[in-house]
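Incident review: delayed structure delivery

Summary: a single-chain prediction request sat in the queue longer than the usual turnaround. Root cause was a stuck worker, restarted by the on-call engineer. No data loss occurred. The affected request and its eventual output are reproduced below so the record is complete for anyone auditing the incident later.

Affected input:
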Amino acid sequence: MAETPTRGRAETEVATDDDRSSDVVFDRVADLPRARVDPPGDASFALCLTHDVDRPFKGIRSLYYALQERPTHHLRTAVSGDNPYWQFEEIMALEDQLGVRSAFYFLNEQHLLADRPAREWLSPANWVQHLGRYDVTGDGIAGVIRDLDSGGWEVGLHGSYHSADEPKRLREEKATLEDVLDGPIAGGRQHYLRLSVPETWRYHRAIGLEYDASLGSSTGCGFHAGYDPIRPFGDDFLVFPLTIMEQALPDPDSQPCGARQTCERLLTEAAENGAVMTVLWHPRYFSDREFPGYRTLYRWLIERARELGAWIGPPRALQAALEGDSDGSHRAETDPAEFRFTQVKS
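Output delivered after worker restart:
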């Protein structure tokens, strides 16, 4: 893979997910139309901040982790009822202090027993996922969603594991989240970066989403899909490729210099090329006790980006700026004919 890709070009490759070893296909994107970005104002590049809300409750999963690593710590978490994964207020306070906003993508995962076929009930991996499932309509999560929205953060959709190939499910998840938010959502990212390209993007556009941020890798950092957002259909629908997922970085606790050097290299590359750089920090990684070093690195990343002259914010705000729609009211046109209930392979 080229270290410094030609603008708008990308290699064909397959990225694998660390947790489930499921393939995420970077289908041929080199020849797709691009949204040439001139960062807002006199910014040298754009840094989009995103958070995938996978598991806001650790709970009984502590017992599962205790069998694999740091047993004393995880057992203590399970017994005490402490929940180190609930980091919403801490993230909001940190970003407020830094004067930035980000996007939070909420997951409405299916119920294993009620919604999935019986053959999937025997998989231990499926049970681990199910035990971490949360309800976006529950009082705690719903309250956070509304607080984020009222505070200027973007709330988006984290499409569930199977929804990349199940458009009916994707539409239902979007409708449920919009009911909680009491307003429209503009985009989001698929769980585990699962994509059927370009079918999943077609589903997104057909249900009224304006962008997707799923094209990326959980194992490697870089501008693998070019420096600019992609216009897969040649219209206003955008794809924001993922540049950094925190778990793909060198461990900032044991390798702090390596983690910063990787971020510095990519920030500098973004500034030199007027790029759109999108980063993902899962909320649980802001727990210093569970994932030491990641919160500090996130702060440093934002501060360093500002020193390099970056525009910083959530993808929807950048898209609105590019479309000359500063209040974010623009909505992509939806063509019902585009919504085809077909089964596609991931």
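Verification: The longest strand covers residues 45-53.
Action items: add queue-age alerting; document worker restart procedure.
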